[in-house]
Design goal:
This protein has one domain: Metal-dependent hydrolases (TIM Barrel). The longest helix has 21 residues, at 77-97. The strands form two sheets. An eight-stranded parallel sheet has the order 1-2-3-4-7-8-9-10. It has a two-stranded antiparallel sheet with strand order 5-6. By secondary structure, the protein is an alpha/beta fold. The model is unreliable at 1-7 (pLDDT under 50). α6 packs parallel to α7 and α8 packs across α11. The protein contains 14 helices and ten strands. Residues 76-310 form the Amidohydrolase-related domain. It holds the Pfam family Amidohydro_2.
Length: 311
């Protein structure tokens, strides 16, 4: 078990997941088959914070977001808003009650109730210092997150200076989705769609944090530069990305080479990736082996997060 004393230099995990217990129980009353549909739900560390703390071997402070379980996929717009609102209150309370584990939480928004989503952003998130931004997914209700229907969320995030956490989800139109490659592909597609839609041109102050090191983007910089316009290629560099690729210092070097050390943040996808509570130790070890300066390693581990979150 890690020491409970947290220093200012403890790494900040920008992308870690939980399953808030009260929210989960509400969802189970709506559909009791959820644990059978999604095997990743059945992870003790998502629900049991004492177990999570006891099994953690590296001291980090996590920004927690809800695991993929979105009310709009199960209920109507009003019920989805109520579920998201209550879940966000629960997430914020979890962060407040466990300051050594969690620096803050990312709010859910109901994608079938955009007026309600905007209300969450303007009232609930802005009114609670433990809610640091909102989580969106690469697709919602069968549509790309870059569709014009969802642009009000990006506009409001820019106006309020709220970061967006972008998480992948399977594209259900495809018959061959898999956990090894599909989510990284979906992240890459969503990033390109946002760039091609000109979201950073309309909202230059927008902050979007992309999971899994930006998917395929760092590996295809040449194609991005050759095929897209110069402005579109520059806009790809405006995303922030995390380090959640289960180690691999050479891949992380490439990630920094593309996005810049100031746009890469320590993130692990905890408690997934490495049992029982995530790959924090593995990823931190990979960062130590990167071909970057000690100052840049410090940026990735915590100072970028502190700056981005205004901590």
């Amino acid at each position: 078990m890690i020491n409970n004393l947290i220093t200012e230099n403890v790494p900040i995990d920008i992308f870690a997941h939980v399953l808030a217990p009260q929210f989960y129980q509400r969802m189970l009353t709506i559909d009791h088959t959820i644990p059978d549909q999604a095997a990743y739900i059945n992870n003790q560390a998502l629900l049991d914070l004492k177990y999570r703390q006891a099994k953690q071997i590296v001291a980090t402070r996590q920004v927690i977001s809800m695991v993929n379980l979105n009310p709009e996929d199960y209920v109507d717009s009003e019920q989805a808003l109520a579920l998201c609102w209550a879940a966000n209150e629960e997430l914020a309370a979890m962060a407040a009650q466990n300051p050594n584990q969690f620096i803050g939480a990312v709010a859910m928004v109901p994608m079938n109730n955009l007026a309600g989503a905007l209300k969450i952003m303007t009232e609930q998130v802005m009114g609670n210092p433990k809610l640091l931004g909102i989580q969106l997914f690469t697709r919602a209700l069968g549509k790309s997150i870059a569709t014009i229907d969802y642009e009000p969320l990006f506009a409001m995030a820019s106006t309020l200076a709220l970061p967006i956490w972008l998480h992948p989800i399977f594209d259900t139109r495809k018959p061959d989705n898999n956990i090894v490659f599909s989510w990284e592909y979906e992240l890459t597609q969503a990033m390109q769609q946002l760039v091609l839609k000109g979201v950073f041109q309309r909202y230059p102050q927008l902050k979007v944090i992309v999971h899994h090191a930006g998917g395929m983007v760092p590996f295809f910089a040449g194609r991005i530069n050759a095929i897209l316009t110069p402005q579109q290629a520059r806009d790809f560099h405006k995303f922030f990305v995390d380090t959640a690729i289960l180690g691999n210092p050479l891949a992380l070097d490439l990630t920094v080479a593309f996005f810049g050390a100031d746009h890469v943040l320590f993130g692990t996808d905890a408690p997934f990736g490495s049992l029982p509570v995530g790959a924090s130790a593995m990823i931190l070890k990979a960062i130590t082996k990167m071909h970057i300066s000690d100052q840049e390693k410090q940026q990735i581990e915590f100072t970028n997060a502190l700056r981005l979150l205004n901590q």
